[in-house]
Amino acid sequence: MKPSDVFWPAPAKLNLMLRVTGRRSDGYHLLQTVFQFLERADRLRFDVRSDGRISCRPAIPGVSDENNLAIMAARLLQEHCNCPLGVDIQIEKCLPMGGGLGGGSSNAATTLVVLNRLWGLNLSPNALAELGLQLGADIPIFVHGKAAWAEGVGEKLQFIDPPEPWYLVLSPGCHVSTAEIFCDSQLTRDAETITIRDFSAGQRANTCQNLVASRYPEVSRALSWLSQFSEGRLTGTGACVFAEFESRQQAEDALGQIPADMTGFVSQGMNRSPLYMKLEKFNGAWPSG
């Protein structure tokens, strides 16, 4: 099978911890967080075109081409490299949109990484990450494809290897606006900084969690429901929440008891992106450029 025939994973991420520690003069918030991937992923396929046109078909419901991060990433890469080629992108959505799992950012990163090879551009991961940062602070972690401790606005990465438990992830059925949460006067913006050792010792709070739960009853209810099995935690600014389990069976047993008006899935944490695990299978099969 050729690389152009393959559906490439764009995995979800969890924020295993999130602390808002300050705010820059340009309004961006300073963070400490830990990113880990999930095996659960959207799937993307890329058909290279010779006419330079970039499209996503079928379109994602509710997302215009102008707001589709995969298209934006392809256009940015094309322009940066003055590449004459184009692409038709097909996206199979498996991740809830606007849930804090990074689906759009992951779609963009997978687009950058795979088109870099299909178009024969040979940019380094660091160069791709710098391009991706222009579109979103979460994109570099997906480009690098390794679990990481992150600071700054999320772009300063130190790769780590936390445990890889099984997670039950719930989508409460509401959309949380990250912009609104970060603009909320009640948001704690001066959380004390911690170290990787502190995180490993159990300091895994999300300073956005109480605020989001107070603003969104659906999130509060999902967190409360999860707490009967394991500690419920918010990923990013939500709306998705998660709890960790020692085994897949334990997580599946909890999922089997989920209320009818909630949706969820079980997935294992991964310190290496499934995108790169799949890329390894195609060594030597890429265009030479």
From TrEMBL:
<keyword id="KW-0547">Nucleotide-binding</keyword>
<feature type="binding site">
    <location>
        <begin position="96"/>
        <end position="106"/>
    </location>
    <ligand>
        <name>ATP</name>
    </ligand>
</feature>
<comment type="function">
    <text>Catalyzes the phosphorylation of the position 2 hydroxy group of 4-diphosphocytidyl-2C-methyl-D-erythritol.</text>
</comment>
<feature type="domain" description="GHMP kinase C-terminal">
    <location>
        <begin position="204"/>
        <end position="260"/>
    </location>
</feature>
<protein>
    <recommendedName>
        <fullName>4-diphosphocytidyl-2-C-methyl-D-erythritol kinase</fullName>
        <ecNumber>2.7.1.148</ecNumber>
    </recommendedName>
</protein>
<dbReference type="InterPro" id="IPR013750">
    <property type="entry name" value="GHMP_kinase_C_dom"/>
</dbReference>
<dbReference type="GO" id="GO:0050515">
    <property type="term" value="F:4-(cytidine 5'-diphospho)-2-C-methyl-D-erythritol kinase activity"/>
</dbReference>
<feature type="active site">
    <location>
        <position position="13"/>
    </location>
</feature>
<dbReference type="InterPro" id="IPR014721">
    <property type="entry name" value="Ribsml_uS5_D2-typ_fold_subgr"/>
</dbReference>
<dbReference type="GO" id="GO:0005524">
    <property type="term" value="F:ATP binding"/>
</dbReference>
<keyword id="KW-0414">Isoprene biosynthesis</keyword>
<keyword id="KW-0418">Kinase</keyword>
<dbReference type="Pfam" id="PF08544">
    <property type="entry name" value="GHMP_kinases_C"/>
</dbReference>
<keyword id="KW-0067">ATP-binding</keyword>
<dbReference type="InterPro" id="IPR004424">
    <property type="entry name" value="IspE"/>
</dbReference>
<dbReference type="InterPro" id="IPR036554">
    <property type="entry name" value="GHMP_kinase_C_sf"/>
</dbReference>
<dbReference type="InterPro" id="IPR006204">
    <property type="entry name" value="GHMP_kinase_N_dom"/>
</dbReference>
<feature type="domain" description="GHMP kinase N-terminal">
    <location>
        <begin position="68"/>
        <end position="146"/>
    </location>
</feature>
<comment type="pathway">
    <text>Isoprenoid biosynthesis; isopentenyl diphosphate biosynthesis via DXP pathway; isopentenyl diphosphate from 1-deoxy-D-xylulose 5-phosphate: step 3/6.</text>
</comment>
<dbReference type="Pfam" id="PF00288">
    <property type="entry name" value="GHMP_kinases_N"/>
</dbReference>
<comment type="similarity">
    <text>Belongs to the GHMP kinase family. IspE subfamily.</text>
</comment>
<dbReference type="GO" id="GO:0016114">
    <property type="term" value="P:terpenoid biosynthetic process"/>
</dbReference>
<keyword id="KW-0808">Transferase</keyword>
<feature type="active site">
    <location>
        <position position="138"/>
    </location>
</feature>
<dbReference type="GO" id="GO:0019288">
    <property type="term" value="P:isopentenyl diphosphate biosynthetic process, methylerythritol 4-phosphate pathway"/>
</dbReference>
<dbReference type="InterPro" id="IPR020568">
    <property type="entry name" value="Ribosomal_Su5_D2-typ_SF"/>
</dbReference>
